[in-house]
Amino acid sequence: MNNKQKILIVEDEQSIINFVTAVLTVNGYDVIQAKTGAQAQSMATSHCPDLILLDLGLPDMDGLDVIRFIRGWTRLPIIVVSARTQERDKVEALDLGADDYITKPFGTSELLARIRTALRHASTANAATPAEAAVFQVGDLTIDYERRRIVVRGNEVHLTQNEFKIVSLLSRHAGKVLTHDFIIKEIWGPGLKGDNQILRVNMANIRRKIEKNPGAPEYILTEVGVGYRMAEGDS
Ligand code: CA
Question: What is the CA radius of gyration of the chain?
């Protein structure tokens, strides 16, 4: 019986296909490949992969249209692969329902970490009764959701209600990037869409309270032009 998780690579550059296929195969994944958006759509429906690694720059169609198509019928995790010149597309891809992105050129460990995170979030989301952990821990940071307590390096830190909500939201999605608009909508509601200033101010205060060096944060990372990502928890 084959219990390997199946990953569909959608990519038109042969060198990247070869590299990614080799890395994933060695790490125990089954790999299937599509070189065009049309192929990707038909393979996604016929092979039911566990995850799609999707290049946005495809020869026959915009990768964003592939996301729209896939999201029309399934929540299966999609990790977008984008070039540096496609900064704006990252946000749009996430807003369309992509789970994460990785920027070319990327390394093996980054690729594998992104895939593990997306697969884990997918399996939690699919569970009949998703187990919400009571506590989140990464490094010297502990979040106790019920008591609304945050302890850093042994000391309790006092966050405002919104600061706590932001940290909780990011930690519930640890390892995954959340866009500015998504965070703002979750914390302040839809009225503030497009106004990142209030989020920046809150984030500066949070970092001052929880990071050893707010200029080089280790818990909440900045994804330039996109949003924030909480470091992966320890459990
Ligand atoms: Ca391409």
Answer: 19
pLDDT tens by residue, 7-19 = 999 999 999 999 9
CATH class entry, domain 135-230: mainly alpha
The answer, yes or no, to whether residue 133 has pLDDT greater than 70, is yes
- For residue 105, what are its two tokens? 């050129």
State how far the Cα of 178 lies from the Cα of 166, in Å rounded to an integer. Answer: 11
The CATH architecture assigned to 5-126 reads: 3-Layer(aba) Sandwich (3.40)
Task: Tell me the CA–centroid distance for residue 182 and ligand 1, in Å.
Answer: 27
Residue 124 binned pLDDT confidence (cut-offs 50, 70, 90): confident
pLDDT tens-place string over residues 46-79: 999 999 999 999 999 999 999 999 999 999 999 9
Q: pTM (2 decimals)?
A: 0.82
Q: Where are the domains of the chain?
A: 5-126, 135-230
Distance (angstroms) between ligand 1 centre and the Cα of 218 equals 32
Distance CA 175, CA 149 (A): 21
CA 63 to chain centre: 17
What's the CA-to-centroid distance between 227 and ligand 1, angstroms? 24
Cα 225 to averaged position of ligand 1 atoms, centre (Å): 21
| Gap from CA of 57 to ligand 1 centroid (Å) | 4
CB-based neighbours (< 5 A) of ligand 1, an ion: 12, 55, 57
83 alpha carbon to ligand 1 midpoint, in Å?
8
